[in-house]
Amino acid sequence: MKLADKLYGTLRQRVDSGEWPEGTRIPPETELAQIHGVSRPVVREALIRLRADGVIGARQGAGNFVIAGAVADAAGYRPIENVADLIEAFEFRFSVERDVAALAALRHTHAELDAIRHAAGAVNAQAGDDGFGDADFSFHFALARASRNAMYSATLNMLRNQIVFGMRLVGEFSQQRAASRVETVIEEHQAVVAAIAARDAMGAQAAMGRHLINSRRRILGFEIATDWLGAADGGPPTTGNKFNYEH
């Protein structure tokens, strides 16, 4: 288990158990890092997830506070158990994450663009499938934060297990060499980053669409037909056509 995941679980338990009731001021990042023997980036990632859950919130100049108390909802999506679940997850992600990329292109700050680039670069450093899945999720989550819409961040956070699970399946079932897979994903990520940096919303939406469709193909080993093709992707609704992004 990642250190950030472990710390997130520890902090979340303190809220859910009532140890940290609503209104409790969360210790500063440096203090949490010292208490739990981890780095500040690990603490920061755990706090980001708590914010996305709606468990904590920041007060300007005063730090982070518990805002939901023990009633905070730990809702998430059910685990992927079969191919049909996997296809449904990608269909949902296709609908959500293309708009996330488009909004990130329009709304990102310089700091958020730096975070996106950093997350994209971190994928390159991961060789193992477990680490690669986590790094891939961090990239997608950075885009959600740059969309400046907390609902997207919360949704991506709830999809974390499905996204990481999908990347692990690529490693298990893909016929493509691991190094080649990593290079391909990095290229797709960079296409998204380039469009976002250029504030090209349509380009970012299309690049994310290509990435998700290609990811699904890498996992399944084949393309599937769809009964919907968005107008932004080439025309009116169609029946039985495959997604085609080779423009």
Key descriptive features of the protein:
247 residues; Tscrpt_reg_HTH_GntR; Four Helix Bundle (Hemerythrin (Met), subunit A); mainly alpha; globular; disordered C terminus; 2 domains; Arc Repressor Mutant, subunit A; DNA-binding transcription factor activity
Topology of this structure?
Layout: H1 3-16, H2 29-36, H3 40-52, E1 56-59, E2 63-66, H4 83-107, H5 110-124, H6 129-146, H7 150-158, H8 160-173, H9 178-197, H10 201-220
Antiparallel strand pairs: 1-2
Helix pairs in contact: 1-3, 2-3, 4-6, 4-9, 4-10, 5-6, 5-9, 6-7, 6-8, 8-10, 9-10
Describe this structure in words.
Keywords: DNA-binding, Transcription, Transcription regulation. This is DNA-binding FadR family transcriptional regulator. Pfam families: FCD (PF07729), GntR (PF00392). Helix 5 runs antiparallel to helix 9. The C terminus is likely disordered. The chain has two domains: 69 residues, Arc Repressor Mutant, subunit A; 151 residues, Four Helix Bundle (Hemerythrin (Met), subunit A) (Up-down Bundle). It has a two-stranded antiparallel sheet with strand order 1-2. It has 247 residues and is mostly helical.
Helical residue percent?
55-70%
Strand content: under 5%
Spell out the helices and strands N to C: HHHEEHHHHHHH
CATH topology group of the largest domain: Four Helix Bundle (Hemerythrin (Met), subunit A)
The number of strands is 2
Classify the secondary structure makeup into a structural class: mainly alpha
Number of alpha- plus pi-helical segments: 10
Q: Can you name the CATH architecture of the largest domain? A: Up-down Bundle
